Amino acid sequence: MSGGLSFLGLPGQLAEGEVLRAVIYSAAHGSTYPGKDSSGYALAADAIRAASQEDAALMEHWDFDLGGLLFDGKPVSCVDAGDVPTTLHDNAGNRARIEAKTREVLAAGAVPILLGGDDSVPIPFFAAFADHGPVWLLQIDAHIDWRDELQGERYGYSNPMRRASEMPHIAGIVQVGMRGVGSARIEELEAARRYGSRIVTAREIHTKGVGAALQHVPEGARVVITLDCDGLDPSAMPGVAARSPGGLTYTQVADLIIGAGQRARIAGFDLVELYPPADIDNLSALVASRLLVVAIGTIARQA
Fold first, then answer.
1. Structural class in CATH, domain 2-300
2. Which of 56, 87, 109, 187 is the most buried (most CB within 10 A)?
């Protein structure tokens, strides 16, 4: 953690005998395409941690998004384990380290919460659930990310859902917030449909509500939520590299997270694609921080 800040001032570990429910950790780099520089995304986790500090003293205050205290009146059950060491363009090494850390958290019986980094970071995150399946994926994103390869790389930021679809432990995929144009040529959309992905556009959410997406998540299933920040509208999340109008609101995304935790069980959560160089007055980092709080509170309320 650059500067020594932890998310919400959470401890790095709990005292002996305390119940560990969730572990936050970050990975600055995943699998970068040739000639690309993901250094801007590498600033995201520290920006989110910094934005959370104004709420650090308020953890015992009433949270109106959650309908109660952050940890539901129970002891703190989440830690911030800091950074997974990653290096720009060390694609295979980065994937191995991210997967290993995620497996470590799962082995401890906790819910892993990963902060990226660009949208290549979730691929090894998903892979780590191989011994903890089946799991469903709930993707919140402007794009379906179903490219098979780009410039010879198959594990970059346009490939995560395609790679996830090839993992035997992934039981199904629900994709929410799609709009406009992006990483979806006709062949990618057809591949997603052949797989059986449930694609729910941003327009459908605006018209029908978040239930249009949540209905596709089986009741009682274990679900991993992968949140690409460009799934939100730029009015709430300007700090992304690919702004697209018509996106989801903060409340809609919060309701998707809370609803998933009530209908199913959140087994993992990642947040990626925050791009601090494009942020405005740290608004995006603040929104990302608040959504992470919602995720932590929702996980704390799971039986």
1. alpha beta
2. 56
